[in-house]
Amino acid sequence: MALIKCPRCELNYIQDTEGYCKICKREMKGEVQREEIEMCTICNEAPALPGKDACLFCLKEMNANNNADHEENVHVDEASLDIDPVSSMDEIIPEIDDDTEFGELGEDLSLDAMGEEEMEDEEEDEEE
Known about the structure:
Elements: E1 3-5, E2 13-15, H1 22-29, H2 56-74, H3 78-81, H4 102-108, H5 111-127
Antiparallel strand pairs: 1-2
């Protein structure tokens, strides 16, 4: 009893006493191959939805729980924080004096000025 490849599909191995593999026999009889039904990994009672690990009921339940948790996290009671609400953006934005050193730095970091300096350097290198 040696194993040989099925003469029809040449994929599956059969014993040398058999004519065809089980899959080819099923196809020749015209039977439709049944797909295995995957069960829900959460409840193990209902079939899982195609492409999912859980059944419809478990997915709905998980979504409801996620939404409830998200709503609990989002809702914050301002009274418990003891923080005064900000009435305008003017209170948030600090005032910056124009006399600060940022103006001087801005000139030093100007891309135009840096480009001009590079051009001058390249011209000097070409002249040498």
